[in-house]
Every structure is written in structure tokens, then in C-alpha cells.
């Protein structure tokens, strides 16, 4: 069966490349299938790589390889003295992509910007629930429905956002994937044709690459957008060869079947470095991996139980086994490379005997629990199944019986958000904008319960500090609030913080112009490949 699946995938890839055989084609061995192609509805980097960073653009963008904001679809902007009104001047002459399924008749204007955001929070907007179960998780989890008072069209090329309060990370947030700008004209056509679901299957934006076709779980094909406002890309065709097994990705890279791969197995890195045809890039990841307890479900609603489980797990053993030294044990919900990291925090010590006593004192015995293990490799957790097995063995030593469960990736992300979820879930995060708010409030704020807050943890003291940190632009003052919030997080233990990893990207030496991104995305604008 495995051979047949591999053959079908290879056939699909060859078929999709078709006419691209004689063009300059870059093949990226991606680690998984996207959940969909509308970036507003999702949070996974796999989906963003395949949608927002290829097909779409945003009002502002992060400079390639960094976290500094630069003009995107907005060529300039002004901010009112009280920090509540942002006025954006749109870049004139920006064209939406022309595809086999849609030909635009006008250029980007303010209507597209307003539509792109209003559909995410106005429940009377027909596009708010155009896909069953659409939750606009980022938009809601970051508090945007309460933050945005209005979005107004000043003229065709001017848009004004009025906020209910100052928001220090607002501009950086607009550079994130959920803030990608979609075509209202395309949406109107799909609505008129009764085919609204195609917005999530046949994406159309203003980005560097135009979507061509998708063979589910096999390959995605794009072509360079000839009308891209920043200029046509050097490569003509971009192909995502979906390859979920890291060892197979490495084999394909060595065989020249793909040119770039993400997330190699730690055990394969030295062999990849030794290959004279390959280059291996490395950098400290702006990331964290964690085990999130469901704090709404007994006995995980008790902090002493969560603390005891944390003390029962040998995190260093997980780092050694899964990353072979290419990661460090995590104690905080933000990485040590991020400003406001509180290094004075003391981690929960690995102490099985103390953990056993703490569980007994809490009246907990014969505990059975589930640990959810991700089905895909992510930069912050290369092998969740192996990590879960190690935790399973550790917890057995303190009398806790663990069942390991998993689901297909899109289902895993959806089900793990449920407030009634059974068990603790392994997940993680790579920063989207270089701001601590993107970790702490996005993943742990009260607004994110039922969404990105997989611990379903709402602590008012913590949340108040998040609000204070947002409304001031003074970095020293914001640092003080985030440092204090990390103390509360560690005291309450909604997660067991697992690791911060090194990120490794191997590629063919034929590739030039590829830059590692601290935000954990893979961008192909500016990339070239030698013939």
C-alpha cells in the first residue's frame, strides 16, 4: 500500500509539473497538506506556507529574514496622537492575479481591504460562515473584534482603522497571515455563482505566486505572478511536493527530486551536512513547544495536579531523544531570544517522588489521561509521537496511565481547541510578529479560550497584565508587565513547557536567495535556482 501511495503521489506531481518541465522550476518538499487556502481561517504554518506567503499580500509586510515592518499593499500610513486611528494609503496599480478560474476587471482598492477584515468579525457578513465551522481563530483570539471600532473607506486608495483603545502591536499584527488581503470582486463572483466554498480551494490574491492546481496530499503547483507589484519572480514555477515523512523528504532532497525541505529528523542532519551537493541553514527558532492541559476538566482544573504532572516529566530526555541537542528545555511560554523573557523564573524540577506525593495530597489516584501527539513535524516538535511515548513512560512511574491519541493534522487542530477536549495536547508556536503579545496573549489570553488557548485557561490577573502591555508603546513598561505575567503563568502551570528548538533548513546548492525566517514561515519570493 505504501509503494502504491508513493507511486500515485509521484504520478500526480509529474502530471502537475507538466508544462513546467521546460521552465525554471523550484520543488519544495513540504511537510504536510494545507488545511485550506484561505489564511484567515487557520493558524498552521503549513497552511500559511501554501497560501498567505505564496498567493497573498498584506497591508504591511515583515522584511525578509526579520521582524521589522515595511510597506506592503499600503505604501504609507499615519497614526493619530492617541494611537487609536491608523490611516493607510494603498499602493496604486496593484493587480489581482489572473487565473484559469477568474479574470479581475479592476485593481486593488479600499473595498478589498474592508471586505478582508469585516468578513472575519461581522456575523451578518455572508462570508463569515462560508465554510462550515469557520472560526477566524487568529482574529478572534487576538481580541480584534473588541479592538476594532470601525474600518472606513476614505477614498479608493485610503482606508482608516479606528480602534477602541491603543494597541502597541497593531501594525505588526497586520503583517500576519490572517490579515492577508483577498479580492472582493472574486468573492462577489463566487457568491453570485453559488460557489463560495471555492474561496478556500482556489485562492486568488496579489502575492508573488499564482495558484494553479492542488492534488490533495500529493502536490500543489504555482506559477510566478507576472503582475506582482514587486516584480515577477526569478523562478517560473513553484511546486510543493507534499511529503509527510521526514526521512523520505531527506531522501528526495539528496536524490535531487526536490530543492528545499523543512524539518529534517535530528538524526539525519549530520548526513545532510556531509552531502557536497547540499547547504544546511540553521538558526535559533522563535518558538516554544508545550503540553497544554485542559484546565476546564477535572482533575486538570487543579494547579497542584498540573504542577505534579510537570514534575513527573523529564524534559531533558525529550530534548535529547527528539532533537539530539538541537533544542533547549523551555521554562517560559516565550523563547529566550525574545525581549521581555524572564530568566529569573525557576522551572518545575524533575522530581517523580515529589510529583507522586503532590498527586496523593490532591486526592488523585489511578489517574488515566490522554496525551495528543501531532501527526506532523513542526519546527518546535520534530516527533510528537516520540515525545508522547517518553511522557507516557515518565507518568507511569507516578501512577498515571497515559493513552496516546492522534488525528489528521487539520482535525487535530480543530478538535484540540474544543473546551471539552479530553486530555492534554502537544502543540507549539513560532512567533508571527516578533512581539511577546503574539505568544502570551494569543496563546494564553481569555479571548483565545476555545481557539489558540489550548489550555482553555483564563486567569484575570494574567489577562489584565496583557491589556496593560498592549495599551502602552513604552518597551520598558511593556517588559515589566510581560515579566510579571510569566511569573503568574509558571505559578498556575496551564502548560508543561517542553522546548525551544533550533530550526534547520537543508537545500540544494543550486538554490540561491532563500532566507530563513525567524517567524517560522517559508517564503519563496526572491529565490532563484541554477539550471
Automatic annotation (TrEMBL):
Transmembrane regions listed in the UniProt entry: none
Keyword field: Signal
UniProt keyword Transmembrane helix present: no
Location(s), subcellular: Periplasm
Signal peptide: 1-20
Claim: Amino-acid biosynthesis is one of the keywords in the record: no
Domain annotation Solute-binding protein family: ranges: 68-448
Primary residence: periplasm
InterPro entries given in the database record: Peptide/Ni-bd, SBP_5, SBP_5_dom
Organism domain of life: Bacteria
UniProt similarity note: Belongs to the bacterial solute-binding protein 5 family.
Protein name: ABC transporter substrate-binding protein
Naturally occurring in which organism (per UniProt): Mycoplana ramosa
